[in-house]
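Record format v2
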Amino acid sequence: MRQDPARLRFEIVAREGSARAGILHTPHGPVETPAFVPLATRGSVKGLSSADLASLGFEMILGNTYHLMLAPGEELLAELGGMHGFAGWDRALISDSGGFQVFSLAHGGVADEIKGRRGGRSSHGSVLSIGEDGVAFRSYLDGSPQLLTPQRSMAVQAAIGADIALVFDECTPFHADFDYTAASTERTHRWLDRCLRWHGEHGPSDQAVYGIVQGGVYPELRARSVERVAAAAVDGIAIGGTLGRDKPQMRAVLAATLPQLPVAAPRHLLGIGEPDDLIDSIGLGIETFDCAVPTRLGRHGVALGPDPERRYRFEVAKARYARDPAPLVDGCPCPTCAGHSRAYLRHLAKIGEITAARLLTIHNLAYTKALVEGARAAIVGGRFAAYAGAIRAGETPWQATAPVPS
Amino acid sequence: MRQDPARLRFEIVAREGSARAGILHTPHGPVETPAFVPLATRGSVKGLSSADLASLGFEMILGNTYHLMLAPGEELLAELGGMHGFAGWDRALISDSGGFQVFSLAHGGVADEIKGRRGGRSSHGSVLSIGEDGVAFRSYLDGSPQLLTPQRSMAVQAAIGADIALVFDECTPFHADFDYTAASTERTHRWLDRCLRWHGEHGPSDQAVYGIVQGGVYPELRARSVERVAAAAVDGIAIGGTLGRDKPQMRAVLAATLPQLPVAAPRHLLGIGEPDDLIDSIGLGIETFDCAVPTRLGRHGVALGPDPERRYRFEVAKARYARDPAPLVDGCPCPTCAGHSRAYLRHLAKIGEITAARLLTIHNLAYTKALVEGARAAIVGGRFAAYAGAIRAGETPWQATAPVPS
């Protein structure tokens, strides 16, 4: 990897075991880590404005290359000041490479895997071919043929103007066997080179680039990928691809992979954001996370909370909350909990009002942020192990960070 | 009518011709009039929170009896502090009677009239019978049989805890003939008596009640209705029912009806809220307006603006705005225009993001509010006629209120 303060400076301010608290210094301001990064998928976090995200205190959001190249398109984005200018967001921005989405079209997404479907066509579009040069597919918006190559991915990300771009990669599915995963990972490494070459010649000089470690669930492929990515001129490292069949396997893959990474590299974990996964991954040394879970759950009437036995979530529309005057989570400082009862939110969620989607999205983002911020404060204070234990035992972030009574 | 400061005190602070500027003093604070009242139909203005409405400066919102009696229901509302407590709204509140909605189920709504459908069943439910006692219908939520009577309407509105309740009435459709309208209006007058009797015995002592003038497009029926309503112990008067086939007929009905009303009575015009209608109706002496137009247009990608030739509106998703860096309306001080270009809003509206629905709803409400506030300031300054002329000529509210350069 390279270290170039003109693009990105990563400062580690505290450690506890493998966990790190730090600051990513980007051209659009600092991002205190660990940090959760909300998904502004198609240019907005669904239901929220950029001003909402700033007022919730988020320092970085993520834009999706796949969606933004189809609409509004990279030319228009470049013309209108990138996503910062377009969406009125003046803090840090990371963009993904589009690889996850186009390969989900080909391999089927996580939901397809769970339901036993393989390689089915998604309702969102269809893949025409996968080759050494990239992926050809049809736009889900207008059916137009599209080609996403390493070069185009970087060009779109240059137009987006992200502070941190990700290299184009194949996100291998859980059902991929060793041989497929090995060949795919090697191609991802060749794409890494193409991305860096394009970026060196055409990319914004202040845009950082993260490499992506693939290799599926196979330790030797992950190890080879770490070696390859760490040797390249990247500014940080993302962990991508399937992390296993279940949470224990995901933790095993991460536990085996992370110690091999350069200590100085900021690490991003792609697509992970449930409360227990965040706590465990922070403990293993991850800096930043993006994930659809908090916002998608919010749009579907599900609120995040502290109860591990209910997977840190509950359905707000249930009858048991019909007369409940309490906020979603006691003590939660978010604007949703400050001004709305479970009874009111239950009513709005049950009848499908979009106000419910917005208010639950706000709570879930704020709750996730509080959880991660609590972890950061705990690492700085040398009590992360206790904090993680308290979260796993069902305490809220603010309970888990409160001083222990003597 | 009656005048009882414990319920409602209406203070007229300025007049110009028939137009009045005033203040409605309600138990939940003052409402400067003329005023536009956003629809919190089922307990929220779709996409917005009560805090959003307060921060936009609205002093009164409207809750729908028909929707709120079906969910969450009057018992739950009463238990949770009425709609003020339930929705976290601490300013003035008006509730409608449910009459408009249940009779729309029977007669077909405005959209049905335009399309030539009559008496069809709405997709939202079905009417079982209409009689002297009220209307029996099926809930669109669970199919349960419901009976909406004058008494139940007032009981629901007592549970809602509105500062201003409306009596139960039949909203006659445009296609109703003289005989039907005459008989319906007489029944509405009998329902007025029932509502006032119930309210006198069981209603909140600080809740004001507005009577509703019906009579369709027939001047003699309107005159009789005015006489009947004005003679009753009401705190204000609403104008309901069909106002004609088109805008000229609507203005004719209003122009014939309003001079017959007691001067001291605050007047509410039901269901009217397009910019030109607001200006004309304010000129004829209306205080308050509720209407779905600004919010419904916003959810469907249509923004309000100053151009009379385009019906004061434009479709944001049109290709012509794809690269337009300007706000929706130049000089508009609303949070949407302050932070978002037409290009960005066009992108979000075109792909159907709910952020677009929210941001356009905010603009349309703020624009409507600015238009009506400008009218108020103009009446106070004795220049309403000029203001109305400027709006009709295509100026924005802030252009129309700016001092004329000498």
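Chain B has two domains: 9-96+152-290, 298-395.
Chain B touches chain A through 38 residues (CB under 8 Å).
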